[in-house]
Fold this sequence. Notes:
Blueprint: H1 3-9, H2 15-22, E1 24-32, E2 36-43, E3 48-54, H3 60-76, H4 87-104, H5 114-126, H6 133-137, E4 141-146, E5 154-157, E6 161-164, H7 172-185, E7 196-200, E8 206-210, H8 212-215, E9 221-225, H9 234-239, H10 245-256, E10 261-265, H11 271-279, E11 288-292, E12 304-308, H12 322-330, E13 336-339, H13 346-355, E14 359-365, H14 369-377, H15 385-388, E15 393-402, E16 405-419, E17 426-435, E18 440-443, H16 448-456, H17 461-480, H18 486-498, H19 500-511
Parallel strand pairs: 10-14, 10-15, 11-12, 11-13, 13-14
Antiparallel strand pairs: 1-2, 2-3, 4-5, 4-9, 5-6, 7-8, 8-9, 15-16, 16-17, 17-18
Helix pairs in contact: 3-5, 4-5, 10-17, 12-13, 17-19, 18-19
Amino acid sequence: MLLVERLNEAKGEASVAVVRRQLNIISMSPVYEPYAYTAIAIDPATKKMNYVVIEPTLLDNEKRILARIKEALMDELDVDLKSLADIKSAEKYLRDAVERIVKKYKIKLPYPETLNKLLYYAIRDFVGYGKIDAFMRDHMVEDISCDGVGIPIYVWHREYESLPTNVVFESDEELNSFVIRLAYRCGKHVSIAQPILDAALPDGSRVNITYSREVSRRGSSFTIRRFRSDPLTISDLIMFNTLSAEMAAYYWMLIEHKLSLIVAGGTATGKTTLLNCLAMFIKPDYKIITVEDTAELNIPHENWLSMVTRTGWATGVAEVTIFDLLKTALRQRPDYVVVGEVRGAEAYTLFHAMATGHGGLCSIHADSVQAVIHRLESEPMNIPRSLLTLLDDVILLKRVQVGGKPVRRIAVNTEIVALDPKTKEILTSDTYTWNPHGDTYTFSGRSYVLEKIVKMSNLSLDEVREELARRRLVLEWMVRKGIRSFKEVGAVVKEYYADPAKTYRRARMDLT
């Protein structure tokens, strides 16, 4: 018997009590107190870890009342809840509407707590995200995935990774209705004629939907990649040991001098997160253009233009691709171009931009540095080897286990040194390497890119290394003092560019 079936058998009992009796709870957190909680628990029957949503239990008569209230709300709501100023305004409007309907139709409530339970479910289903609302409220959930009818929804938890949940869509009608509503929340439409949708929710989360059984045999499906309202910053990544403070200072130096970097890695390795953190090192007065399929990058610069693609979803509506956007971006004289992910012909345009002095940052799906080079050279990117040397640095991210827990680490930082004139091979140098035994990072002792910065500036190699050490100290100070929010980190970077000596002295004094 599925976990969700066993939990649903215990009608009339407090949901938290049911979960505590049937499962071994590891942790529990409120997501909409005092009505909705989420728990990480081990199912004694299967010995597997589950993500459990705990909500108020409705008796049969309460379910009938809720259905009646929802029907009345559909008829009587005279305002589009999306048009209200914020979620709290929408919730208040809905509360007033439910209470008005209960009085108007003289609905008899069986228990004193029934009204609060009905209000919770009305808000969850009309203002929130219905059955998946608890997932959307939990900051520990990165991805939400539904594979079809009768299949438990899976979530990707920041600490425990992939977990099955006790939430299931029971019928095609229920799931189809949900994905249509999800598409509406994105300002889009999905149908049998257009059964595949890539879009973004109002909070920036990425959504992929397949509708009905036209393309997915198990019924409609969806995947949501959550957007963090408080994005991770370089301070967070240093604290998590995704990279060291010295490596962060190294990337800061590269980006200041408009050198070009690619962030590589597999699925869910944190490529976009790292790309966003690195983009915050770009000089505050530089013109930056970001080009993405779905808007995920978020940087504190004023002179920043965010561009996103558009699908040709209807007759007369032209498709706008990454390639189209990149060509447009380069006509606007940016100092730095940031591409969310390169997959096709736009890579060639990006490399030509690097050749004309534009800084370039992008990510690519690849599991090794050699795989990065191979992908760039192959169809559909077709970058000639002579152009590949315009790339300065490749950062390879991996998901690994440290102390039995899944973590993200920069496995290796590789510099692109030159093209061997005899063999025509790309010469590379691994500057920083992650050591899995001590969970530390090792510097090779030489950086060709720092030597390139020496030639670009009027500094000696010793002076460049001293500057690297100063920035490392500033970054360590930020981590030590808890300077980690998006605005705080952006402010420190801006201050350092304005007066590096003053910022360095302040950091050094605070640390001593």
